[in-house]
Write a structure and sequence with these properties.
Largest interface: A-B, 50 and 50 residues
InterPro entries (chains A, B): ATPase_NBD, ROK, ROK_cs, WH-like_DNA-bd_sf, WH_DNA-bd_sf
Shape of chain A: globular
Largest sheet of chain A: 5 strands, mixed
Number of helices of chain A: 13
GO molecular function (chains A, B): kinase activity
Strand order of the largest sheet of chain A: 5-4-3-6-10
Pfam family, one (chains A, B): ROK
CATH superfamily of the largest domain in chain A: ATPase, nucleotide binding domain
CATH architecture of the largest domain in chain A: 2-Layer Sandwich
Protein name (chains A, B): NBD/HSP70 family sugar kinase
Number of strands of chain A: 15
Keywords (chains A, B): Kinase, Transferase
Oligomer: homodimer
Amino acid sequence: MFPNHAQPLVTAPAETAILALLLTEGPLSRVELARRTGLSSTAITKSARPLIDDGYLHELPPERTAPGAGRPVNPLAVTVDREFFVGVKISADALFVTVCDLRAGMRATAGRSLGEDRSPEAVCGLLCELVGIVLDADPAFRERTRHLGIAVSGDVDRAAGRVRYSVLPGWRDVPLAEAVAKATGLNVTVENDVKALTVAEHWFGEGIGTEYFALVTIGAGIGSGLVVNGQLITGAYGVAGEMGHLSIDPAGPVCHCGQTGCVEAIASSDAIRDAVRDATGDEDLDFDGVVQLARSGNPAARDAFARAGRAIGTGIAILVNLLGPERVVVTGEGLDTYDLFGVHIKDAYAAHCFKAAAKCPLTLRPLPWEEWARGAAILGIQALFP
Amino acid sequence: MFPNHAQPLVTAPAETAILALLLTEGPLSRVELARRTGLSSTAITKSARPLIDDGYLHELPPERTAPGAGRPVNPLAVTVDREFFVGVKISADALFVTVCDLRAGMRATAGRSLGEDRSPEAVCGLLCELVGIVLDADPAFRERTRHLGIAVSGDVDRAAGRVRYSVLPGWRDVPLAEAVAKATGLNVTVENDVKALTVAEHWFGEGIGTEYFALVTIGAGIGSGLVVNGQLITGAYGVAGEMGHLSIDPAGPVCHCGQTGCVEAIASSDAIRDAVRDATGDEDLDFDGVVQLARSGNPAARDAFARAGRAIGTGIAILVNLLGPERVVVTGEGLDTYDLFGVHIKDAYAAHCFKAAAKCPLTLRPLPWEEWARGAAILGIQALFP
């Protein structure tokens, strides 16, 4: 996070546990909080005090669950507009910005196509302009926003706030967090987009309450984010969750990464397009054309989607056999062509899951780009924690 | 663990942290303990007190690091023979038993081939006999042993203390922990052998101090144990680390699990033997015969080992691309034929690692069966913790 001197809101384990539960699960009574955290009621009351005083929590009106059920209880709740968070998703050709409240509710959004100039300077300029626009939507936003999160596809060094590599032209080792922090005056966190979305889904989406959770994205790239024992896997060398680069077919095509038989080399939208170009000899086909061909029944195009589906299903089964997630969420723009390869994904997944691992359901979750920006805003919410 | 009423020795986070550090890293000064745990010196002294009173820790004589370096410090150390732990490894044809001290030092061992009768009752009887023999080696063992760990290959429900499935004949849903607890009077934990060995190596072996660590076993079976953020991955449905059942070749052989192209279907010792039988037409070849053929230069046998090596290397690369371990330890009886496929393992690993994941070194570690029994004893040491 940049600048580095921003302090978390909570540091003590008890406060941390209380705030996390109320943020992700909504209002809870002190009794319920005590039960869930293993703390005493006294400890709950003591730890909640500073958060109430700071305006982050408030007591709801007393509720009686049943007549004669004893003392009325005042549930504790998060004051959602105590603080706001900006999230930015940088995609290959557009920017999406959102302002979220404390429970990740989207309050304002803005999106803009990238112009011709996609250099770090140009994108950074547009980004700050859009951030200004969403923050101007409500005076409270400017007043009570301290954190901004940026999600970008590619190789991101979160600790250093740098984008080491992205598909955008000229983006090599860009000190993005520092630049945006300087321009906006906010505390900035930059993270790989799939990792940010995984944490967002784990905290506020399909992954709530799971200890083992995975999110898989399909489309132009194939990636995954993995949560184990409640924490995102980041890898000892900064590489983890590279589902797109699992080698699953020694006879498969060469990948842009240099390996042979990667899932992405078979199943990305470019890979599908290239396979159909090769099969049909039509070098002018674009991905939309390939989709049309497949939907009209062209065997070569249908085959390419079938192969892609099998590769994705096999890749997810591998992930599930190694990590044993409770649930896998599948998302990304590849879901737009799910009619063409969904059955192959499911068949290959079922065929390659080992024993009880097959209990893990695949949940399809189309997430518009705004949701990816929301994932980025949640990086800011995380910054409240140690 | 059976019976269920055994209490951990430490429960408070501070005591837990101190005992874990001293167990795994050896004597440390209170200053060093404070630095490593983030606790105050006062908290260290207070938390260490009950462990000293119970005889688990003691103070070493004062040491001065340099003349004039200030007050002498008394490092704290674990009193290794305060408590002992029995570990048992059940292999396909033999039993190995060891008594370990608090820092997992092996003090006595015993091994015995299984007889003709390998039923749960027969193995359990022999197991208890061997446990009696090792405990009789020193009166202190009987006096100060409370925990016994059992490592067995197959599908183990650790929480229920049951072996759901193992390669031993007739072993289906065996309540092993309960039976051994009743016979020995000890608290018994049963765990899958690869998982037990992974935790043992993480605490007391090559994995010390790593947050992300993996152990891969090769030989009759192919398996792996995975540690992420310092904790063993167990999977939401009890399945995780199934490296042997990653599907890596759609054109590969059918596996005993029913899938196609599993690592184990290509690279287990049986798979290698079968491939050479098919290629040579000699149905009487056993694995030793195949090894001899390969060492004498027979092309079919050499090819089978090359394919196996590539499958293992690809499987490890997949594991590394998803989890990003700091180090992978490769062990198992398959190391005996490392001369025949080591180069293929390494080449395939290097070819399929994604970017910085390739920094992760493979460490070969031949572990005799006694070490697997030691891994099981460490299950008992873990039982001291919450």
